[in-house]
């Protein structure tokens, strides 16, 4: 019997990731009674299937980079690391920075609504 390869394990891991990211949206659309617990939490984290797939592709790209970089000669590794590092920092700053701005905007809207409700009651 042939032993599983490292690449096979990675493909299996990615298949499990696709299932875990996509299944909550299937449940929400076709089986709402089962959309609860962990599946509801995962669905609420990613909000849309497109966002979940975006995270999957980012994870896939990261795994490919981690596999490919050690096979390159050391000078190329250093040059590639210096080239990719700023892009990674910018990506995380933009991705999470925009998300924080969105959350802050929602908080401001909710505070304004609460203030309006308090003014109506007085």
What does this structure look like?
Helix content is 84%, strand content 0%. With 122 residues, the protein is mainly α. It folds into two domains: 1-71, no CATH class; 73-122. Helix 1 (6-30) crosses helix 2 and helix 1 (6-30) runs antiparallel to helix 3. The protein is flat. The relative contact order is 0.06. The mean pLDDT is 83.
Tally of individual helices: 4
In terms of quaternary structure, what is this?
Answer: single chain
DSSP summary, beta strand count: 0
User: What is the arithmetic mean of pLDDT?
Assistant: 83
Element order: H for helix, E for strand: HHHH
Shape: flat
Radius of gyration over alpha carbons? 21 Å
User: Could you tell me the strand content as a percent range?
Assistant: under 5%
Number of domains: 2
Profile the largest sheet.
none
Q: pLDDT under 50 segments (min length 5)?
A: none
Helix content: over 70%
> Which structural category do the helix and sheet elements fall into?
mainly alpha
What distance separates the N and C termini? 78 Å
């Amino acid at each position: 019997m042939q032993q599983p390869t490292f690449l096979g394990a990675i493909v299996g891991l990615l298949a499990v990731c696709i299932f875990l990211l996509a299944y909550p949206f299937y449940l929400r659309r076709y089986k709402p009674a089962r959309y609860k617990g962990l599946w509801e939490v995962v669905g609420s984290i990613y909000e849309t299937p497109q966002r979940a797939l975006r995270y999957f592709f980012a994870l896939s790209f990261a795994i490919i980079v981690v596999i490919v970089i050690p096979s390159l000669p050391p000078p190329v590794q250093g040059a590639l690391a210096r080239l990719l590092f700023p892009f990674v920092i910018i990506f995380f700053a933009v991705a999470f920075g925009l998300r924080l701005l969105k959350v802050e905007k929602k908080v401001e809207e909710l505070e304004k609504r609460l203030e309006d409700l308090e003014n109506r009651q007085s």
